[in-house]
UniProtKB/TrEMBL annotation:
GO terms for biological process: ganglioside catabolic process; oligosaccharide catabolic process. One of its GO terms (molecular function) is exo-alpha-sialidase activity. CDD domains: Sialidase_non-viral (cd15482). Residues 1-23 form the signal peptide. Residues 67-325 form the Sialidase domain. Belongs to the glycosyl hydrolase 33 family. This is exo-alpha-sialidase.
Length: 350
């Protein structure tokens, strides 16, 4: 741990700002007619552009199964979060069809950005979840038409399951394979993958249970680590698969307290490869958004620091081009989605 801290202090340019700075990014909800912005996803594009994506929920704040007018909207920043473009809809179906729960990943080989989301036709197929992917080849400027990958990634006979792809981030291993989690309330969490840069998709492993929304990270040794929200547990549960898809670890992590809420996890792209996790540091209430790190691939975690002590919920992490962290998170009872820059020195300095 000391070695990593030393490398950080010597590699990151000295900054006047050594504490988090933040700004509300999605907050003007008047035009939503009682709706809200929810479910953040954040990624750094290959050219350094920050891409922030959220649900735009009209008329009410209900989830996909209960709201027939949810779009996915995007803002971009070309200056590490100092300024942002106006919001633009990148997934917008006619009223009666909704899209929700975006997650993104950058393919480091092809430079493409994959965005997954869940879809429902509440007029003709209410209660039937479908799963789509869209792709950007130009750092988020434009996006492809949606592709339905439900039949490739969902378990057999699960058409009527309560089933969804976890929002936030997917992951890519050193071999270029992409992984993400698919949650079913009936069976547990599955992992799906593409081993050919998005040409085809397939189930990889699972299910594991108990588990709800599950953050996923490909570790340097090739293993796949799942960090799961579990109802009423008061802590996170960690599952680890080997590269062949065999479950090799299953452990409750009492040093990762949690009030049953989605978090954000990533591998810090620097010498030492620290695993970084943002979630709510409370066992009962959705508040105290904080951040922790692990230098031993999730076996133990730092004490952590609080980013926002007030009401908060879902979050999404990205690494900026200058080696720091960007965080997009829900706050103040789902009234706003805020963007925060976290200097690496602040995160890693215990």
């Amino acid at each position: 741990m000391k070695k990593i801290l030393l490398l950080l202090f010597t590699a990151v340019i000295a900054q006047a700002q050594t504490t988090p700075a933040n700004a509300d990014l999605f907050y003007d909800t008047k035009y939503l007619n009682g709706g809200c912005f929810r479910i953040p996803s954040l990624v750094t594009a290959p050219d350094g552009t920050l891409i922030a994506v959220v649900d735009e929920r009209f008329n009410q704040c209900g989830d996909l199964k209960y709201n027939d007018d949810i779009n996915i909207v995007m803002k971009r920043s070309f200056d590490n979060g100092k300024t942002w473009t106006a919001a633009e809809r990148i997934v917008d179906f006619p009223k009666g069809q909704s899209a929700s729960d975006a997650s993104m990943v950058v393919d480091r080989v092809t430079q493409d950005i994959f965005l997954f989301y869940n879809y429902m036709d509440l007029v003709n197929a209410k209660g039937i979840f479908r799963h789509h992917v869209i792709v950007s080849h130009d750092n988020g400027k434009t996006w492809s038409q949606p592709r339905d990958i439900t039949d490739d990634i969902a378990p057999a006979n699960s058409e009527k399951y309560f089933r969804f792809i976890t929002s936030g981030q997917a992951t890519q291993d050193n071999a270029g394979n992409i992984y993400q989690t698919l949650v079913t309330l009936e069976e547990g969490v599955f992992v799906f993958t593409s081993k050919n840069h998005g040409k085809t998709w397939e189930r990889f492993a699972g299910p594991v249970a108990p588990a709800d929304e599950t953050n996923i990270t490909a570790l340097p040794n090739g293993n796949i680590l799942l960090n799961s929200r579990v109802r009423d547990l008061g802590a996170r549960k960690i599952y680890v698969f080997n590269p062949e898809g065999k479950l090799i670890s299953n452990e409750v992590k009492n040093d990762l307290i949690d009030p049953t809420c989605n978090g954000a996890m990533m591998l810090y792209d620097f010498q030492g490869k620290a695993l970084v996790f943002a979630n709510l540091h409370d066992q009962k209430d959705r508040k105290n958004l904080g951040i922790k790190y692990s230098t031993n691939q999730g076996k133990s975690w730092s004490e952590g620091k609080i980013i926002y002590p007030g009401a908060s919920a879902y979050s999404s992490l990205a690494q900026t081009w200058d080696g720091n962290f960007a965080l997009l998170f829900e706050k103040d009872g789902y009234k706003k989605i805020s963007f925060t820059l976290l200097p690496a020195i602040w995160v890693f300095n215990d």
